[in-house]
Amino acid sequence: MVLLPDLTNIAAHAVGVGRGADLILYCFIVVTLVAVLNLHLRIRAMSEQNTEIVRLIALSSVQDNAPPHTETNRPATLRD
Questions:
Q1: How many helices, marked H, and strands, marked E, lie in the chain?
Q2: How far is Cα 55 from Cα 5, in angstroms, rounded to an integer?
Q3: What is the pLDDT of residues 30-46, one digit of tens each?
Q4: Which of 33, 44, 56, 74 shows its CA 20 to 30 Å from the CA of 14?
């Protein structure tokens, strides 16, 4: 695009945008929004997986009749 700026102007006029620089900006905004949406969906899926894992651990500790973790008998890694 730097080497052939007229090409961006031609492409911009073909899609109804005034300048090539504007077309590049619009494309950047669309790509950024898609990337943010993708990251949001991945983080949401990971959060749901973490919730499911914690539920399974809690249910398995209850089924094993293990005492619930309290502040005094929790493992050191969970206190912080």
A1: 3, 0
A2: 57
A3: 999 999 999 999 999 99
A4: 33
Asked if the structure places residue 74 within a domain, the reply is no
d(CA 42, CA 13): 36
Q: Quote the CA–CA distance of 11 and 40 in Å, as a whole number.
A: 32
32 falls within a domain: yes
CA distance 47 to 41: 10
User: Is there a domain that residue 48 lies in?
Assistant: yes
> Structurally, how many domains does the chain consist of?
1
Q: Range of 54's domain?
A: 5-64
Query: What is the C-alpha R_g of the chain?
Result: 26
Rounded Cα distance between 17 and 9, Å, is 9
Residue type (1 letter), 11: A
